[in-house]
Amino acid sequence: MGFLGKLFGGGSGATIENLRKAVKDNRFVDARLLAETLASQSLMNTELEEVEQLRTAAGDGLARLNLDEAIGLKRCGRDDQADEHFQLALEQVCSADLRAGIEELMAARAIEPEIDAPETESPASCLSCSPGMTVPLNGEAIDPGDQEYQLELILTSYPSELVERYHRKGEIFQDAFLLSHAGNDEQALPLWEQVEEKEQDDLYFFELGSLLARLGQLDGAKKQLEAALVQNPGLLIAVEALIPVLTSLGDPSKAEERLYQCLEQGVDPSFCHAQLASLLVQQGKLKKASDQARLGLAAGNKEPSFMLLAASVLEHGGQVDEAEDVLKKLPAAGCGGGVNLPLAEFWLRHGRELGRILDTFNAACREDPQNPRWQLRVAQTYFARNWQKDGLKLLKKVVGDPRLDPELAQEAEQLLEKRLAG
Questions:
Q1: Rounded distance between C-alpha atoms, residue 51 and residue 33, angstroms
Q2: Mean pLDDT confidence for 113-135
Q3: Which residue in 101, 175, 389, 413 is a FRET match for 164, CA 20 to 30 A apart?
Q4: Which of 148, 77, 154 is nearest to 111 (CA)?
Q5: How far apart (Å, rounded) are the C-alpha atoms in residues 335 and 64?
Q6: 304-316 and 269-282 helices, crossing angle to 10°
């Protein structure tokens, strides 16, 4: 995945550990991009859950920054600007409680000085699998020890069509499920073995296989996940879990074979082609990956993480216009409606739309002031516009900033050396 780093500032930076750090450091825009890149990779189910939790934390973090700004502007009587920040917060928020709070404040259209922004979990609390106490707007506390609440919380990351089936499961199944998702796999394993035979269906084999994969028992995981797919060939979460198991066993061709088999069985083509594209990228088969990316796009896959992957392989293969078309379909962001950041970085690489991307990067600096990545992009845009003095002044501030990812730090240092020498 090294070339993805050059395209999107990821590469060695596109790791769960760096995603955790980005959220912890309040670099929320960076965290969202990292989460989208990671979600396109073949990760274990628990890793995907953590990526989603961190993506939610990043979105909520950005939303709260804009919500605080909106409240301040409203109190100062700057209603139009306040409404702009309210709307931006609404676009960025991920958690239901915070969304409800934002909507309530927007509907009120009047903020009294003593009214604060609605409480939600801090980004740091999202780094744990165990949720803290949540206080909804009606003031009624939800006890996280309540099994039904925990079950609901976990199942928010599951396909909606499966949720009711999990709710109908027996007590032992649900106890084992909750233990597994609390990170207690070794304690959960004996419980899974006690689940009645009548409940040992595709969901049972999927959960048990995923657990064994997390424990490093890959042969056992492969057996259980394949059993899930014998019972239900269309169980996409089982396919997602099986692919990294097969690649970890040292035979990615088996993973490809499984995905082609799914296509033959009529399983969701947009999903299968996206998975194949990701798998082929990891093997360095970029030409084949671009072919699969096109097929995934043609099949209607609009997942942002996949669209980023598709754009990156197309650009790497020289299909620049195709890559641009894909990136244009990603949602825009920023006060006043800018372009999305991946598209802005794409245009910067190709020297296009310099005025528009400068507005976008400046907006990112305001929204994510703890992230020097966007100051670097502003400096690079200054140089592209031949504003040498301004670019050099800003670049000197960025170089050496410890918050920069290693690849971006190297990029900044090399650019400074070049500018000072020339």
A1: 11
A2: 36
A3: 101
A4: 77
A5: 14
A6: 50
Q: What is the DSSP string of 70-138?
A: HHHHHHTT-HHHHHHHHHHHHHH--SHHHHHHHHHHHHH----TTPPPPP---GGGGGSSS---B--TT
Asked if pLDDT for residue 249 goes beyond 60, the answer is yes
**Sign of the CA dihedral with 52 first, then 56, 61, and 66 last:** positive
| Residue-averaged pLDDT of the chain | 81
- The amino acid at residue 123 is P
Cβ pair 202, 238 in contact under 8 A: yes
Give which of 209, 292, 273 is closest to 246, Cα–Cα. 209
User: Measured between alpha carbons, how far is residue 144 from residues 132, 240, 337, 371, 381 in Å?
Assistant: 7, 29, 38, 33, 48
Write the burial class of residue 101 (CB in 10 Å: 0-12 exposed, 13-18 middle, 19+ buried). buried
- Taking the model in full, what pTM does it have? 0.65
Q: Residue 356: count other Cβ atoms within 10 Å of its Cβ.
A: 14
Phi first, then psi: what are they for 142, rounded to 5°?
Answer: -100, 125
The tens digit of pLDDT for each residue in 139-163 reads 333 344 567 778 887 887 788 899 9
Q: For the CA atoms of the chain, what is the radius of gyration?
A: 23
